[in-house]
Write a structure and sequence with these properties.
The complex is a heterodimer of chains A (332) and B (547). Chain A is an alpha+beta fold and 332 residues long. Chain A is 33% helix and 19% strand. Chain A has 7 helices and 12 strands. In chain A, the strands form 3 sheets. A 5-stranded mixed β-sheet of chain A has the order 3-2-1-5-8, with helices on one face. A 5-stranded mixed β-sheet of chain A has the order 4-10-9-6-7. A two-stranded antiparallel ribbon of chain A has the order 11-12. In chain A, helix 1 packs antiparallel against helix 2. The radius of gyration of chain A is 26 Å and the shape is elongated. The longest helix of chain B is centred in the first third of the chain and has 37 residues. Chain B has one domain: Cytochrome C Oxidase, Chain A (Up-down Bundle). In chain B, 66% of the residues lie in helices and 0% in strands. Chain B is globular. Classes of the chains: A alpha+beta (332), B mainly alpha (547). At the A-B interface, helix 1, helix 2, strand 7 and strand 9 of A face helix 4, helix 6, helix 9, helix 10 and helix 11 of B.
Chain lengths: 332, 547
C-alpha cells in the first residue's frame, strides 16, 4: 500500500520489528493526545466564543484535576520508558558467538574487515540469519554507523571501540549511512549492506582472495612487533601470558579489577602504563602512533583467538551481568 | 464595543520614545524599554540572516544531488544557521526584548535593578554579533552548531575560534540579563505584589534567569576548552592527545539542553498571559503553572545525556537519562492541560495573539509528544541524528518559541509602540505561519523515520518528495514571517494610536499609558489583587478591540 510513499524503511533485522512496534504505539498515542487537545481547544473556542450577555465564569483551578493529569501521563511515560529500555538492552547486547566484523571509519569511507580476512570498503556482505557484531573505531573524527533497515545506529569514536550488532532477516541491499557529521563529504560517506542467502554468502566468501584470517594477520604482527618476547605462552615472560584471558577479570597493581575487553586490550597496547597487571612492571613501551587502526584490530582479534573457551570460563567472577559488553570504557 | 478614541496622545504626552531624540540618546540609554528596542532591532537582524541561511539550505535540498552550493558551503550554512538562530536569536529573543521591556512594568518597578549592566549586556551582544558576522563573512564555520570534538578542535579548517569566542561573549550578555532579572524580581516588586500574585510571565522569566545563571558559565568553560585545545594543542577532547571526545559532549549538552528551556519557558509565560486575557478568565491552576516553570528549569539540568544515547555511553547511564527525560515531560504536560482548561467557560475573542497562542499549544504539543519518541531508548537509536530530530526540535524551538514570541509581540506591540497593528493582516499572518510551519517540518518526521540523516548535502533520490514538500513549506513560512515585520514597521507611522489598555487586560503594564513614560508609572502602584483576576478587577467584560 505504501510502496510509492513508504512511512518506514524496509524491516531487515530482528530488531526492526520491535522498534517499529513501539514507534507505531507512540504514533497512535500521540495522535490520540494531539486530537484530544485540539478538539478540546476548538470545542471550547467555539462554545465559549464571546456572545452578548455571556460573561466568563471564573474558576480558580482544581487540585484533583492537576493530580490526575500529572499522574496518568507519568504512568504512560513509565510504560514507554520500560518498553524502550527493553528494546535498547536487546540492541546493545550482542549474542554470544556472533560473527565479528571490525570497522574502521575515516573521512570519508568505511573500511570493514571480516574475521576470515576479507576486506571491504563502503560495502558489507553478511548472510541472512546470522548474528553479526560490529567492532567499530575511527581513525579521525566521530562518525556514526547507521543502517536504517536494521534500525541500528552506533557512533564510531576515535580512540576507543564501540560495538553494535544485528541479525539480518531479509536478503537485499540496504543503505549504510554515516549519521554523525564528519566534515566536507559527510553525505558522501555512504555505502551498502548486502544481505545474502547463506549459500550465496559462502560463494562470496570463497570468491575473494585473502591473505589469511584477521587473527593470523594479528599473530604475524605479534611476532613482528616483538610482543611475543615478553608475552610468552608460559609463566616466565616479563609480561602476562595472554592465553585465555579475554573476557575475564584482570587484577591490577592498584587493587582494582577490570574485565579484559576489546577496549582494555586496545588501551594496553597504545598506552600500557595506564593499567598495570598486578605483579608486573610498567616496562612495555607505548604503541600509540606506531600501529595503525587496522593493525590494532588484527592484534585484538589475535589475542581474542587465544581463548580456549571464547565466551569466558564458567564460574569465573564477572563484574557485569552475563552477556553485556562494557560500553563505556574508562580510557584516559 | 467602540471606545472613545483619544486624540493623538503620543504627540501630546511625554513618553519613553519621545523624551529624547538622537543616536546618543539611544546608544547611551539606561532605560530598560529603550534597551529592549535596541535588542529588538539586533535580534531581528540576526533572525533574517539565520532565516536566509535556512532558505538556502532548503533550496539545496530541493534536489537529491548537491548542485546549488558546494559541500563545504552547505556545511557552513547549516552550522551558521544553527549558531545564529540559537545564540543570537532564540536565546535572547523573548528575555532580552519582551522580558527587558516588561519585567519592570509587570512588577511595578521604575527600571531593572542594574540599568547600566543592562546596557552593558546589549553591548556584549553587539560585540559578539560583530565577531560572529566577521567569522561568517571571512569564511564561516563548518563544525555544526554543536562544535563536536575532535572535528572542531583538530580537523576543521574554518573560523572555529572566532565563532567560539563570539558565542562565549554572547553568553555573558545572557548571564548579565539573568542576573538583572533575578535581582529585580526579588527586590523591586511594587507593594502588594507578592510572589503568588506575580504574572506567570514573570515566573517564567525567573525560571529562565536561573538557567542563564547556572547553565551559561558551563558553555563558556566548554568553548574556552575547545579554543584552548585548537589554539594550543592541549589534550582535552582529542583522543590522540589523551583527551576524551565524549567529555565535550557531556559539557556541551549540560548547557545546551537547558538552553532549550531558555527558549521555550519564556514563550510558555507569554501563552499564560494571552490565554486568560482573551478568554476573560483567570488562569486555571495558577500555582501549578508557576511551579511547572520552576520544575522544568530544575529537571532540565538533569537530562542532558539523552542527546548521547548512541554516542558510546554506558547503557546504564542511558537508562537513567531516559527516565529523567520522561520526568521533565510531566510539567510541560501540566501546562498544556491548564491552558486548555482556562478556555473552559470563558468568553473568547479570536484576536491575533490568541491565534498565535493556539498555534503554540498545537505545535508545542506535537513537539513534546515526539520528544517521547526520542526519549524511548530503543526508538532513539533509529531516529537520533536523522530528520526526525530536526523536525522535533523545530516544533519546539520554532513552532513553540517563535510562535510565542510573535504572539507576545502582537500582544504588547500597542504598549511598546503606542500603535495598533492591522488586526486582519495579523490573523492572516498567524495562519500563514501555522500552515507554512507544518508543511515545512511535518514531512521531516517521516523523512527521519525513513532514515535520512541530518546534515546531508546530497541524499538518495527516494527522499526527494518529502524534501520538496518541506522546501515549499519554507517559502510560505518566510512570507508569514515577513508580513508582521512589514506591518509592524507600517504601524509605527500609520497605525491607530493605542489606548493604555487596548485588550482590557489585567496586569500592571496595562495601567500606564501606551507607550509608557520613561519611569513607567506616575506613582508607584499598590497591588491588592491576584494575577488575572478578571472577575474582580474593574476591567471590561470583553476584549474592547474593534472587530
Amino acid at each position: 500500500m505504501f510502496d510509492n510513499f513508504p512511512l518506514w524503511p524496509a524491516r531487515a533485522s530482528t530488531t526492526a520489528g520491535n522498534v517499529d512496534a513501539l514507534y507505531i504505539f507512540l504514533v497512535v498515542l500521540s495522535t490520540f493526545m494531539s486530537v484530544a487537545i485540539f478538539v478540546m481547544i476548538l470545542a471550547f473556542a467555539a462554545k465559549y466564543r464571546r456572545r452578548p450577555g455571556h460573561a466568563a465564569e471564573q474558576i480558580e483551578g482544581s487540585t484533583i484535576l492537576e493530580i490526575t493529569w500529572s499522574v496518568i501521563p507519568f504512568g504512560v511515560f513509565v510504560v514507554i520508558f520500560v518498553w524502550g529500555a527493553v528494546i535498547f538492552f536487546q540492541e546493545r547486547t550482542p549474542p554470544r558467538g556472533a560473527t565479528e566484523i571490525y570497522v574502521v571509519a575515516k573521512q570519508w569511507m568505511w573500511k570493514l574487515e571480516h574475521e576470515e580476512g576479507h576486506r571491504e570498503i563502503n560495502e558489507l556482505h553478511v548472510p541472512v540469519g546470522r548474528d553479526v557484531k560490529m567492532i567499530l573505531t575511527s581513525q579521525d573524527v566521530i562518525h556514526s554507523f547507521y543502517v536504517p533497515a536494521f534500525r541500528i545506529k552506533q557512533d564510531v569514536v576515535p580512540g576507543r571501540y564501540t560495538t553494535a550488532w544485528f541479525r539480518p532477516t531479509r536478503p537485499g541491499t540496504y543503505h549504510l549511512f554515516c549519521a554523525e557529521y564528519c566534515g566536507t563529504q559527510h553525505s558522501g560517506m555512504i555505502g551498502q549492506v548486502v544481505v545474502l542467502e547463506p549459500s550465496q554468502y559462502e560463494a562470496w566468501l570463497s570468491g575473494g582472495g585473502t591473505t589469511g584470517s584477521l587473527a593470523s594477520t594479528g599473530q604475524a604482527l605479534f611476532q613482528q612487533l616483538g610482543c611475543s618476547t615478553c608475552h610468552r605462552s608460559d609463566t616466565q615472560g616479563r609480561g602476562p601470558n595472554l592465553a585465555g584471558t579475554f573476557g575475564k577479570p584482570v587484577l591490577l597493581d592498584d587493587g582494582q579489577t577490570v574485565i579484559e575487553d576489546e577496549n582494555y586490550i586496545r588501551e594496553s597496547i597504545l598506552n600500557p602504563s595506564a593499567k598495570i597487571v598486578s605483579g608486573f612492571k610498567p616496562i612495555m613501551p607505548p604503541f600509540q602512533g606506531i600501529v595503525s587502526e587496522e593493525q590494532l584490530n588484527a592484534l585484538v582479534a589475535y589475542i581474542k583467538s587465544l581463548n580456549q573457551n571464547p565466551s569466558g570460563a564458567a564460574g569465573s567472577p564477572t563484574l557485569l551481568p552475563a552477556g553485556t559488553q562494557p560500553q563505556a570504557p574508562k580510557v584516559q | 464595543m467602540n471606545m472613545a478614541t483619544v486624540v493623538n496622545p503620543v504627540t501630546e504626552r511625554e513618553n519613553y520614545l519621545n523624551q529624547e531624540y538622537g543616536v546618543r540618546s539611544w546608544l547611551l540609554t539606561t532605560d530598560h524599554k529603550r534597551i529592549a528596542l535596541l535588542y529588538l532591532a539586533s535580534i531581528t537582524f540576526f533572525f533574517f540572516v539565520g532565516g536566509l541561511f535556512a532558505l538556502l539550505i532548503r533550496l539545496e535540498l530541493l534536489t537529491p544531488a548537491g548542485d546549488l552550493v558546494q559541500a563545504d558551503t552547505y556545511n557552513k550554512l547549516f552550522t551558521m544557521h544553527g549558531q545564529i538562530m540559537v545564540f543570537f536569536f532564540l536565546v535572547p529573543s523573548i528575555p532580552a526584548v519582551l522580558g527587558n521591556f516588561l519585567v519592570p512594568l509587570m512588577i511595578g518597578a521604575r527600571d531593572l535593578a542594574f540599568p547600566r549592566i543592562n546596557l552593558l549586556s546589549w553591548y556584549l551582544y553587539i560585540i559578539a554579533g560583530i565577531l560572529m558576522m566577521h567569522a561568517v563573512l571571512t569564511g564561516g564555520v563548518d563544525t555544526g552548531w554543536t562544535f563536536y570534538t575532535p572535528f572542531s578542535t583538530a580537523f576543521s579548517n574554518t573560523k572555529v575560534i572566532e565563532a567560539g569566542l563570539a558565542i562565549f561573549v554572547v553568553g555573558f550578555s545572557s548571564i548579565l540579563t539573568g542576573l538583572n532579572f533575578v535581582v529585580t524580581i526579588h527586590r523591586m516588586r511594587a507593594p502588594g505584589m507578592t510572589w503568588w500574585r506575580l504574572p506567570l510571565f514573570i515566573w517564567s522569566m525567573y525560571a529562565t534567569s536561573i538557567i542563564f545563571l547556572l547553565g551559561t558559565p558551563v558553555l563558556a568553560i566548554t568553548l574556552t576548552l575547545v579554543i584552548f585545545e585548537r589554539a594550543f594543542h592541549l589534550g582535552i577532547f582529542d583522543p590522540t592527545r589523551g583527551g576524551d571526545p565524549l567529555l565535550f559532549q557531556h559539557l556541551f549538552w549540560f548547557y545546551s539542553h537547558p538552553a532549550v528551556y531558555i527558549m521555550i519557558l519564556p514563550s510558555m509565560g507569554i501563552i499564560s498571559e494571552i490565554v486568560p486575557c482573551f478568554s476573560r478568565k483567570r488562569i486555571f491552576g495558577y500555582s501549578f503553572v508557576a511551579m511547572a516553570s520552576i520544575g522544568i528549569a530544575v529537571l532540565g539540568f538533569l537530562v542532558w545525556a539523552h542527546h548521547m544515547f548512541v554516542a558510546g555511553m554506558s547503557i546504564y547511564a542511558a537508562l537513567i537519562f531516559s527516565f529523567l527525560s520522561y520526568l521533565v515531560a510531566v510539567p510541560s504536560a501540566i501546562k498544556v492541560f491548564n491552558w486548555t482548561a482556562t478556555l473552559y467557560k470563558g468568553s473568547i475573542t479570536f484576536s491575533t495573539p490568541l491565534l498565535y497562542a493556539f498555534g503554540f499549544i498545537g505545535l508545542f504539543t506535537m513537539g513534546g509528544l515526539t520528544g517521547l519518541f526520542l526519549a524511548a531508548l530503543g526508538v532513539d537509536v533509529h531516529v537520533t541524528d536523522t530528520y526526525f530530530v530536526i523536525a522535533h526540535f523545530h516544533y519546539i524551538m520554532v513552532g513553540g518559541a517563535v510562535m510565542g514570541y510573535l504572539g507576545g509581540m502582537h500582544f504588547w506591540w500597542p504598549k511598546i509602540s503606542g500603535r495598533m497593528y492591522p488586526e486582519s493582516l495579523g490573523r492572516l499572518a498567524a495562519l500563514i505561519v501555522f500552515i507554512g510551519f507544518n508543511l515545512t517540518f511535518f514531512p521531516q518526521f517521516i523523512l527521519g523515520y525513513l532514515g535520512m540523516p541530518r546534515r546531508y548535502w546530497q541524499y538518495p533520490p527516494e527522499f526527494q518528495v518529502l524534501n520538496v514538500l518541506s522546501t515549499a513549506g519554507s517559502t510560505i513560512l518566510a512570507v508569514g514571517y515577513l508580513l508582521p515585520m512589514a506591518y509592524f514597521l507600517w504601524s509605527m507611522r500609520y497605525g491607530k494610536h493605542a489606548e493604555p489598555n487596548p485588550w482590557g487586560a489585567a496586569g500592571l503594564e496595562w495601567m500606564t499609558p501606551s507607550p509608557p513614560p520613561t519611569f513607567n508609572f506616575e506613582e508607584t502602584p499598590l497591588v491588592t489583587w491576584e494575577a488575572y483576576d478578571y472577575g474582580n478587577i474593574d476591567l471590561p467584560k470583553e476584549v474592547p478591540v474593534e472587530r
